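A further point concerns the way the authors explain their paired sequence and structure data. The central task, working out the structure tokens from the amino acid sequence alone, is never made concrete. I therefore recommend that a typical entry be quoted early in the introduction. An entry of this sort, consisting of the sequence and the corresponding backbone structure tokens, reads as follows:
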Amino acid sequence: MSVNFQIDQQVVYPCQGVGRILSIEDKTFKNETIPYYVIYLEVSDMTVMVPVEKAEDLKIRAIVDQDMAQQALQLLGEDYDPIPSDWKQRYEMNLAISKKGSIIDNATVVRALYHRSKVKELPILERKLYDSTLKLLEDEIALSLGESKEAVETMIFTRLDSHP
């Protein structure tokens, strides 16, 4: 299965952010012409070029539909398994989950690190992972549901805080 995106389509680039396909351009390298997606990532104000054939390997995907966005919001308020108290183990585990790239994976990481941060302040690396995953989750849900980022942020924290 290969992914085909269109110009102006919103996409999720795991661990990078939500982006928009600006163009699809051919680049020649060693006498071989390769098509690239040119993706603008608002969160970092950066444009990246990704070979079309590598997009699937990098887990670049379309924005989820409204049902899936609602499922991610739902998950934030649900019970979860305890996570390791050793921050390095926890960081590696959550980084691996976030690299899978689904909205459910992102919600899982946000939920775990949010609740951990209520117990004890997160180390810098974990805090960065939490902040970037939360931003990605907010951006994707906002696009999917057609809501403002502020409204989505309120929805996310309402769900997180509803957990006992």
About this structure: Helices lie at 66-76, 87-100, 103-119, 124-145, 149-162.
